[in-house]
Design brief:
single chain, 360 residues, alpha/beta, 2 domains, 47% helix
Length: 360
Amino acid sequence: METLHVGLGSRSYDIRIGRGLLESGWSGLPENQRGLIISDSNVDPLYGERCERALAGLGWTVSREVVPAGENSKSVACLAGLYERAVEAGLDRSSYIVALGGGVVGDLAGFLAASFLRGVRLIQVPTSLLALVDSSVGGKTGINLPQGKNLVGAFYQPDLVVADLACLDSLPSREYVSGLAEVVKYGLIWDAEMFGRLERDREALLNRDDAVLASVVARSCEIKAEVVSVDERESGVRAILNFGHTLGHAIEAVAGYERWLHGEAVAAGADYALRLSVSQKRMAAEDARRVRELQAQLGLPGMAHPDIAGLPWDALRQAMGADKKTLAGTPRFVLAQKLGAVSFGCEVSEEALEQAFREG
């Protein structure tokens, strides 16, 4: 087991990464607590009972609740049902919400923990690659509205992240590849050497080689922990983690949240941000080509995909206007100067935004 520390003063916590942690990763937690495990209809049949048994072994009184798999569970209606379930489970402010699942479950259960009784304890147990390297770390929680993604939420740090790499063994290929979009992002925005390793180890990564995967996961979590420790609430440098997300979130919203997985939409959004980076920040075309090529080799979509290129620009632009990073209706972008170096808060003219979308 490898342990990474996210240093946030009184809100600091550890990320435990290794195999077999669903059984052994709970050391240090208090005994005889109440816990509510939130999972989804895909993950609970695989890991729900194992997680419940492990916590019951600490003397916990454990309840489980299962939401439908998919982005549409990040809704006001689903959250309202979970509030009712938390009351029925007898949770108090010393109790724990355990988010067992991918990014949807982590965001939804995290916001439940942040808001129920004005805050109960939270443990993130990511079971997807995307959740493991991104959404389970850093304290962002939230739900969607019809107008856009994650428009309601809170910054709320977990007490612990238990990342069992064995959970990735059961992950469908498409879900696994979707998570790789966030891994590529870390190399692009922060660590050019890591990006080079991803290019070199691409086949091993796709084959889920244990050593390569453990190293990539640890470095991704380490990068996010470094950024979050500097800027917990995204008032500055943490915004760089949104590379590709401005258009990516718009693609998800316009396509109805079901056509594209989050990482797939982010990969296309990254392709769009690369176009803007070349035109606005003089990023070398060769650097942009390397990113696009790696994403394509991993099986991630780009802007040229017909189901993305065919989306209506007006609807995408309107969705970008509802993004949390928008000021006075103008979206702010994270753009790259080169591999490993990006700027945030970049304003781009309307003409350049549409031109980049329509670029062949």
